Amino acid sequence: MAASRWLLLTLLLLSFTFSRAAVTNVTIDDTDLSYFTWTEDPSTGVSPTLPWAAASVASPCSYCSAQPQGNDGGVNIHNQTWHDGTDGSAGSLTFHGSAVYIFGIDLTNPANISFTLDKTAAGFHYYAGNERFIYNSLFFSVQNLDPNSNHTVGWSLHSTPTNGTVALFDYAILTTDASSTSASPSASQTNSPSSSNSKSKSKTGPIVGGVVGGLAAITLIVLALFFLRRRGQKPRDTTPTDVHPFVSDRAEATPPISVSADAVTSPMSEKMLDVSWNNPTLLPTQPTTATSPSVTSAPSELPSSAPPPSTAPLTAADNMSASGSSPSTRETRAPTTTTDSSARTQALEARLAQLEARMGDYLPPAYGDEEEGGRRD
Prior knowledge:
There is one protein chain. The protein is rod-shaped. The chain has 2 domains: 24-206, Galactose-binding domain-like (Jelly Rolls), CATH 2.60.120.260; 249-300 and 309-359, no CATH class. The chain is of the alpha+beta class and 377 residues long. The strands form 3 sheets. Strands 1, 3, 4, 6, 9 and 11 form a 6-stranded antiparallel β-sheet that branches. The protein has a 5-stranded antiparallel β-sheet with strand order 2-5-10-7-8, with no helix packed on it. A 3-stranded antiparallel β-sheet has the order 13-12-14. Helices cover 26% and strands 25% of the residues. Keywords: Membrane, Signal, Transmembrane, Transmembrane helix. Residues 1-21 form the signal peptide.
């Protein structure tokens, strides 16, 4: 869900950028009367003898003081045409777009040019240098206009204290939506010399660079937000889980068994294995004379299917063997200590051996005639 939101936001930003980038620069020559008008200044009330002279390299103005075409054939003049004005001359440019740039030819001791934008004062242009001619000079510019409205830039020429009266207008560049251009550029634009093309490219380059830079910035912002979001998420717990073995409660409840073995002096000597159970009353009355170091062990787990101990009755030979020796030297049935026997089996066998040893200290009761004779006496 989050990924789809980011994708939608990116597409919206890109579509907005492309919609903003769907503008173009249109070069308007001074001879295109669908944009330009060349008149006298109505504010002065004095009409110039020749308001504007539409000159060109092919048809130069013979009475004009300024001859910008020079000896190189006017290769630096856009479309090799220009308008020559004098004191009292006026003009205007009407267009539909978001920006406008008006270019002309500066010369020594020119007139002072005042500009208006939509009938509001917008500045002036005056060249104070010493160069004979400066081509592609920017006279006026304005940006950030409403692209959906028509705009009019007006100008008028005024003499200066140094008797400067001449101004030379060459062309204009409009920034507008390609689909909203009210009139097509003149045919002279397609055949413009390389100098004018380079000028147009110089204006188009920053716009293209701005569009590409904007796309790159948006991409970087989206990537940065994506990585920050991923970094802010809680990482998964990758710590391995410790596995503890299961220990039965029954094994913990079983008490340890203390086992001591008599030292063995020879292969034929008798050995004694004393097993002490938890009940002190079952311990033998006589202590063991010789013992070995004690080894204590606790069973880790009770058997579930251990065979039951033998419950066969004691024989007479067993009683005689038990009565003829002391508990400490008496041979008992020691529990099996092999590795396959369980701890509980050992405990039961040890307890049975203790009981057999204690039973050997007592004579069996009389039976039959002896019992009856005793009663008679």
